[in-house]
């Protein structure tokens, strides 16, 4: 189950957040007077990152999930409880194991119990993987994603769109025809052009199909486990 595509997608969020923070820092340094965009994709676009940097981020996210986060969760599933034992079993550095465990805790998919050793007075943390939280999280994320995609599809199928030839705006018919715009781009004054959105609709339908397939195969896996 831990190798399921939707599980990996959820775990990717942990690594994405680190990259997002770095990119936000870059953005603030470069454009101190502008408001900082949210979301890794928006930041990549706003910073106009070169393809090799985008590739580097994507690889780092994939590798960290596969080589660090998944093995830590697998250890928890196998009943390994403390950070030190996990580090020993996986060969991952202790400080990284701790960092990942707390990030899993933030996502509510790992939890810990603290107990005090009566002799040494040291605290021990016993960690546990919260499988049902992970399942609920993936279910609700997938449902949200699918309903957003379906709403977008409906909007594309039931509207006509007009775009600025220089890419400044994209309006539906009602907005473009509004006397305030009169089919002119508010940024450059150029006449808006009708846009055939058949390709956008095709792409959305394709994305919906992929999202549904991923979701169904996830549900099948948990039903059979
Ligand atoms: Zn324009």
Key terms:
elongated; 225 residues; two-stranded antiparallel ribbon; 63% helix; three-stranded antiparallel beta sheet; mainly alpha; 8 helices; Arc Repressor Mutant, subunit A; binds zinc ion
Describe the structure.
63% of the residues lie in helices and 10% in strands. By secondary structure, the protein is mainly alpha-helical. The protein folds into two domains: 5-129, Arc Repressor Mutant, subunit A; 135-224, no CATH class. A three-stranded antiparallel beta sheet has the order 4-3-5. Helix 1 (5-30) packs parallel to helix 2. It is elongated, with a radius of gyration of 23 Å. It starts with a helix and ends with a helix. The structure holds zinc ion. Zinc ion binds at residues 164, 166, 168, 185, 187-188, 190. Residues 194-221 form a coiled coil. Belongs to the TFE family.
Supply the number of helical segments.
Answer: 8
As laid out across the biggest beta sheet, the strand order is 4-3-5
The gross shape turns out to be elongated
Bound molecules: zinc ion
CATH homologous superfamily caption of the largest domain: Winged helix-like DNA-binding domain superfamily/Winged helix DNA-binding domain
Radius of gyration: 23 Å
> How many angstroms does the end-to-end distance come to?
8 Å
What profile does the largest beta sheet have?
Answer: 3 strands, antiparallel
Percentage of residues in DSSP E strands? 5-15%
């Amino acid at each position: 189950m831990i190798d399921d595509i939707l599980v990996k997608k959820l775990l990717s969020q942990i690594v994405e957040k680190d990259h997002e923070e770095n990119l936000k820092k870059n953005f603030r340094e470069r454009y101190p007077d502008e408001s900082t965009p949210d979301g890794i994709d928006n930041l990549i676009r706003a910073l106009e990152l070169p393809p090799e940097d985008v590739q580097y981020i994507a690889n780092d996210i994939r590798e960290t999930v596969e080589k660090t986060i998944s093995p830590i969760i697998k250890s928890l599933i196998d009943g390994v409880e403390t950070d030190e034992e996990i580090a020993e079993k996986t060969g991952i550095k202790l400080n990284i194991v701790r960092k990942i465990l707390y990030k899993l805790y933030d996502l509510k998919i790992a939890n810990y119990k603290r107990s005090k050793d009566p002799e040494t007075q040291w605290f021990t943390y016993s960690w546990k993987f919260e499988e049902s939280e992970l399942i609920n999280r993936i279910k609700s994320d997938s449902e949200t994603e699918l309903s957003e995609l379906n709403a977008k599809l409906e909007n594309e199928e039931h509207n006509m769109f007009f775009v600025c030839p220089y890419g400044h705006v994209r309006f539906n018919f009602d907005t473009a025809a509004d006397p305030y715009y009169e089919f002119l781009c508010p940024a450059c004054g150029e006449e808006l052009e009708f846009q055939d959105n058949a390709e956008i609709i095709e792409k959305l339908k394709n994305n919906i199909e992929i999202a549904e397939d991923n979701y169904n195969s996830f549900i099948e896996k948990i039903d059979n486990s």
